[in-house]
């Protein structure tokens, strides 16, 4: 009976550790960017790695979109027309990368099915798309207080 209690206690401790790690973990942009005190309307040409929306800051911070690039963090004016376009393009690219990186549950890819089949016979063989293992994932990311990072 003592062993059952120690297993239960171990599970509770492990869950507590995981919760502490999850609440303490944040992206580099969240940790580095305390706040933006000034913004620029200049368009960013570097590839975007992530962004953070600073919605209702307390002074001296101002409303801003903080873009994370390889060169650093940029505080941008949130109502500049190019800002929304950059965010939408980033989110679209992130969705495309996410859908390309999903693995089918069976571990088989369309390429492996095609290359493993015997040479075609005189009658054309058709693969039904309903018989192929496909999976897709969709994630919604609201422009909010959290960072959105590019998936690799």
UniProtKB/TrEMBL annotation:
<feature type="domain" description="Chemokine interleukin-8-like">
    <location>
        <begin position="34"/>
        <end position="87"/>
    </location>
</feature>
<dbReference type="GO" id="GO:0008009">
    <property type="term" value="F:chemokine activity"/>
</dbReference>
<dbReference type="InterPro" id="IPR036048">
    <property type="entry name" value="Interleukin_8-like_sf"/>
</dbReference>
<keyword id="KW-0202">Cytokine</keyword>
<feature type="signal peptide">
    <location>
        <begin position="1"/>
        <end position="28"/>
    </location>
</feature>
<dbReference type="InterPro" id="IPR001811">
    <property type="entry name" value="Chemokine_IL8-like_dom"/>
</dbReference>
<dbReference type="GO" id="GO:0006955">
    <property type="term" value="P:immune response"/>
</dbReference>
<dbReference type="GO" id="GO:0005615">
    <property type="term" value="C:extracellular space"/>
</dbReference>
<keyword id="KW-0732">Signal</keyword>
<dbReference type="Pfam" id="PF00048">
    <property type="entry name" value="IL8"/>
</dbReference>
<protein>
    <recommendedName>
        <fullName>Chemokine interleukin-8-like domain-containing protein</fullName>
    </recommendedName>
</protein>
<feature type="region of interest" description="Disordered">
    <location>
        <begin position="128"/>
        <end position="152"/>
    </location>
</feature>
<feature type="compositionally biased region" description="Low complexity">
    <location>
        <begin position="128"/>
        <end position="141"/>
    </location>
</feature>
